[in-house]
């Protein structure tokens, strides 16, 4: 276990050097803190809440210079103390570490750091001076001893990382406060540019993302989370609106030789995002897609009242403009195999097959050939064809949807729009347990869906090959499971039949059967998902990577796109270096996560309440009848207002290591 | 839009009890400490905040106070301008810690501020200087010239200078331009020490979407934004014996100038301005009001033509910032604009054509100097379509502020000058209608007085159209012009935010009007972007100046443009009739589509993005 030699954390002084043991402090139990990467011990760590030194020979002046250098680089420059203070403190420490006199002495540095801490506008300025103030207070003799030497300090290896709660919560690690800031600055195009660094489907994401970031937003401690998604929706107009940003081949810094070809299978968010990042890295990318259009579940699953189809089409232009090629109606398992691709000269393959086949409910008489029986996915596909004018799919009578996730919500809300007389939602647990987005649930209520919770199907009732009803049973709650949810069990004798003409099983999904065959040499899980390594996304077959729903199970657009970037990075490494690399940023995140080092500070002073701006939405009565986009873009006035609510909860973390840290991206 | 009254406090009743410096006071729920402190007469220094435009960005961090939350032993430093009050809060505004931190804050502000005060356009009236004095700043340990050396000074615009070596990043300019004028031309650029204010899409001021209304200059606390100073050029003309200088001053100048010399806001100093101009050595002093009367003759006639042809609406064209706005932001509506030149251009054109005939002058040796409450008028005079044969209508425009500077440079004090009167027999008489041009609704009222006469052959009975004299951002009315015209629907908008709303309505086909008056500055020219600046206030004297104007109109012997004897003589002896060919040549103009649609590439954007967790 890593031994703290001295330090300060949350105001508590730790000093375990001979004869100096600080009173009342117990050595912190730091997990996985010994080395940063292979054989590279961590010598010191600095954060917003304090710092730890693990090696007595660490030079504090240099350590804090490294930390403040990052702060000065990242200072947004809006407020006085941080804009100027970070620079002055950095420069003073910089001179001192070289054995020279700085413009500020130790007291001056302490006073300036205190000024930044106490009076800065945002989280960065407020937090970047704290550790230094405490260090000078508690370990002044260390600093003085270093100063007395009047010699340049030996260079130390370091790496610094800046993040915020919303960034950490986002699977793609989008720099949320940065893009919000660009809106405040009046530069929505730059805001979009920040997002496009991470994935190409910003306009889609801005409409359907499940918003992990907002769930983590610190603004909730004041009033409500910042409307991160509606702001993204606002800037996404610069991707699909009248004057979109232009992607062009000259963005690719180094185009690789013709033989550097990669095949991506599946044109869903994971595949498209991977292709985008590979193209930017100079590869020649072909995307093979079983369907006749790109977008994956985003195109065919997510209903058009949440995501208009032309938005997706627009986004795909990024791929073609960068030189990527789509091959439609090409299905792995039917039209070609992994071996075929390798033979055609692709150096690597990315499987982004999604999870597009519905899982059965497992109740009696669940005959998928019954007229009126649908899987959630299957139903939404029909809805898609109906809306796209490909094939009408009128519904009459009542509809029962089974499930409590977003797919189930999409099914009930679509069924209303398709003209169902009445729509019932059946879910075996309570409404609070539903994994669906809260807003989706509320919208479903608004639109008159009848909820039957703590209810489960027992069998399907049919006549002449047609569904005429479902037999349901009431459920009751039992003990709490590992996830903190109460388990449920049927109440004997509570069964009843609910008549209906359509029953939709929206409870889970798997990879299309027959896509990946044993001879492809890619291991599949018991749920029929692709097995891959968590860090590298490499499958059991060398050169073949996987990501998105086919690896994660039914997940989210943003998680799929994050996988796309991760895979591109690893495929790039694999093709250039023969193996995948170490990524310092991921590593530092891991350390922070394992030790719960993210600040848990509350907001101690009053902050003016400014409630969030809401999407202009149409009234439920109108909404029910239409498939046009329900949520509208907000005005620039509202966007400015909303952007002002972000408190920029940035924090910086630095490690000092024994050896240099190997370079990897992201 | 234009907050002339004090801001209404948040909430309805002052129910929150707390303490400032030990004294128990009350505040409205969600009111800021600063607002409450001001109501209770506790001074807290501020820089970025500007209550009149509801602006509390919290960037300067000067308004520090020390607070103690109920039940807590520790204290916190917070910024008073954006921290709300809480029941039981104890606020201290003058502890040593507060004073020390405020002082350090201002010292940090000065560390990258080019304090060349002696050469600064804002010297003596600068909010930053005031605050430095308040906090007792005595040393300036951190200033390094290298930090400001690379900062942008944009002199591209004929109207304004944007000097980022003096910017304190308060963002007041951004707020006025974005939320009030809704031009949204300004953006925040750079990060860290490079943070500054720039124009959208990285353009310079001249090529940007800025319309040079100058409202940002009115709110800037320092010398960072200012008019382009042309006092030297005026002195060059005045002291050149070869040249005949003709000076005209706008209707609004006389009611918005006395303050600078310690007179009560709104005082009419017309006589003093005339006398001071003569003392300066100006050869001929004219009144832009005369031009306004001529504009009414031309525009009124044009309006009647257009009404006859069922072309509607017709929009006034006397405000150059509005012309810029129309050309850059609404070019599709340009056909609706009257073609009549602005009063200052009209005076210039006549002074270089008619006046030389009457007075035996060489037009080439005449230099027309305009004193205007407006920055956009500086921009206007370089329009190539406003001049004849390489001879611009107007040679130089001084804003009210520069005119004050000019008088001071020449050692003139308005208070000790004996007022005088106009003496030019050709172009200095004016009607009451010409005067009220300077305030919102005035052009409309002036025009209707004359149009009514033309249509009906008799004067309006009730000459003051008080129904037009409201102060809301957009006002509309229906006026019966009688005769073959009948009822006309009119509207007036002041401030470009309101103007934008009106233009959108026109585009959507939702606005049903015959005649529309637009003034780009909230309140009209009396509060133009070239008027005197007030510290920590935005347009504080709007209503006083307006009242004085209406008073001048009331006292005027002649109250309709068409009854101005010198105007009559102008048409009789020189132009013929309104909209005659000669009048058209000299007094009308045209407009061009200057809309800038920008296609940006991701590559360009990525090249500019800083401080993101970059992938590329
Ligand atoms: C109804 C519904 C609603 C949803 N709503 C949301 C939401 O609101 N927010 C959110 O974040 N997420 C939502 N999701 C989840 C989200 O759409 C997925 O997580 C995401 O699309 C997964 O991306 P992917 O690229 O991994 O797979 P997919 O999007 O499923 O794409 C896989 C692609 O591979 C193709 N493919 C499959 N097999 C083969 C083969 N053998 N050969 C060639 N091509 C093949 C498919 O045709 C498809 O185009 C929803 C999903 C559904 C079904
Ligand atoms: S990063 Fe935060 S603390 Fe630093 S200058 Fe910007 S607003 Fe101020
Ligand atoms: S307030 Fe802003 S920076 Fe803080 S968590 Fe929310 S979005 Fe992120
Ligand atoms: S802006 Fe103010 S402080 Fe700065 S140089 Fe000008 S007068 Fe001096
Ligand atoms: S002059 Fe007017 S339009 Fe131009 S930046 Fe200033 S406020 Fe905006
Ligand atoms: S230019 Fe003036 S108003 Fe604008 S941010 Fe700078 S100091 Fe403030
Ligand atoms: S006046 Fe409060 S932060 Fe500037």
Radius of gyration of chain B: 26 Å
Structural class of chain B: alpha/beta
- Give the number of helices of chain B: 21
Mind telling me which CATH architecture of the largest domain in chain B this is? 3-Layer(aba) Sandwich
| Level-1 CATH class name of the largest domain in chain A | Alpha Beta
Distance linking N and C termini of chain B: 44 Å
Number of helices of chain A: 24
Could you please describe the fold and organization of this structure?
With about 675 residues, chain A is α/β, with parallel strands linked by helices. Chain A has 4 domains: about 160 residues, NADH-ubiquinone oxidoreductase 51kDa subunit, iron-sulphur binding domain (de novo design (two linked rop proteins), Up-down Bundle), CATH 1.20.1440; about 100 residues, no CATH class; about 180 residues, FAD/NAD(P)-binding domain, CATH 3.50.50.60; about 150 residues, FAD/NAD(P)-binding domain (3-Layer(bba) Sandwich), CATH 3.50.50.60. Helices cover about 35% and strands about 15% of the residues of chain A. Chain A is built from 24 helices and 23 strands. In chain A, the strands form 5 sheets. In chain A, strands 1, 2, 3, 4, 5, 6 and 23 form a 7-stranded antiparallel beta sheet that branches. In chain A, a hairpin with a 5-residue loop joins strand 17 and strand 18. In chain A, helix 2 packs antiparallel against helix 3. Chain A is globular and about 95 Å long. Chain B is of the alpha/beta class and about 625 residues long. Chain B has 3 domains: about 90 residues, Ubiquitin-like (UB roll) (Roll), CATH 3.10.20; about 120 residues, Alpha-Beta Plaits (2-Layer Sandwich); about 350 residues, Rossmann fold (3-Layer(aba) Sandwich), CATH 3.40.50.1780. In chain B, the strands form 6 sheets. A 5-stranded mixed beta sheet of chain B has the order 2-1-5-3-4, sandwiched between helices. In chain B, a hairpin with a 2-residue loop joins strand 15 and strand 16. Chain B starts with 15 loop residues before the first strand and ends in an 8-residue tail after the last helix. Classes of the chains: A alpha/beta (about 675), B alpha/beta (about 625). Chains A and B meet through helix 1, helix 2, helix 3, helix 8 and helix 9 of A and strand 4, helix 2, helix 5, strand 8 and helix 21 of B. Bound molecules: flavin-adenine dinucleotide, iron/sulfur cluster (5 copies) and FE2/S2 (inorganic) cluster. FE2/S2 (inorganic) cluster (FES) binds next to loops of chain B. One iron/sulfur cluster binds next to helix 7 and helix 8 of chain A.
